[in-house]
Amino acid sequence: xxxNGRWAKERGLDRVCGHKTGIExxxxxxxxxxxxxxxxxxxxxxxxxxWDRPEEEVNALMQLMFKEVTEELDNMxxxxxxxVVLGNRARLSVDLRDAIDSLMEETSHNTGLVLIIFLSYxxxxxxxxxxxxxxxxxxxxxxxxxxxAGYPDPDLIIRTSGEKRISNYLLWQAAYSEFVFTDTLWxxxxxxxxxDALWEYASRDRRYGxxx
Length: 212
Ligand code: IPE
Ligand code: MG
What we know:
There is one protein chain. This protein is of the alpha/beta class. The chain has helices spanning about 5-10, 15-35, 55-70, 75-80, 95-105, 125-135, 190-200; strands at about 40-45, 80-85, 115-120, 155-160, 180. It binds 3-methylbut-3-enyl trihydrogen diphosphate and magnesium ion (MG). 3-methylbut-3-enyl trihydrogen diphosphate binds near residues 1, 2, 5, 61 and 161.
């Protein structure tokens, strides 16, 4: 989800206003995913690198996260959404961790959309923690140690705001993902843009390195 800051700047607003409007896009995309029968929607909300932003912005983002995690329960229950938050939990505040745990627990029996929020996540961090745990346990395969173990690899990764890079997102898991890059800034990315991205995905020929 990229482009909140530029969206705000274009309007002479504070960056945090961009993040707040971005949350409206999250709501729209979660709702559309449920309506369209998407099984798993992942959102890259905050990377390990994002901790190096100015302190006020990091604090504002963490506050917004806490607010959403604590206030969205009813909405998630009525839409049958199972929420999973994945990332480097050690860097999150105890209050936020507790709020995440309770949202995950309360929605754990919902059978509709699985909504994965990547928070304080980075692909290299994930591979490193997986390798460390594998070595400690004497395992012989990385995959079961990745934080995403048990969840499917993404079929499609959409990046908004005109940037054409992966920025340390799901490095291992994106091995055969399709990518759609759109110039639309995240706060403007709503149902119509999402539909366009899914149509583009539908036109792709996925061969997984094989011959068809
Ligand atoms: C994405 O928007 C939100 C987060 C990374 C939390 P940005 O904040 O990266 O917006 P730009 O890239 O400055 O426009
Ligand atoms: Mg950005």
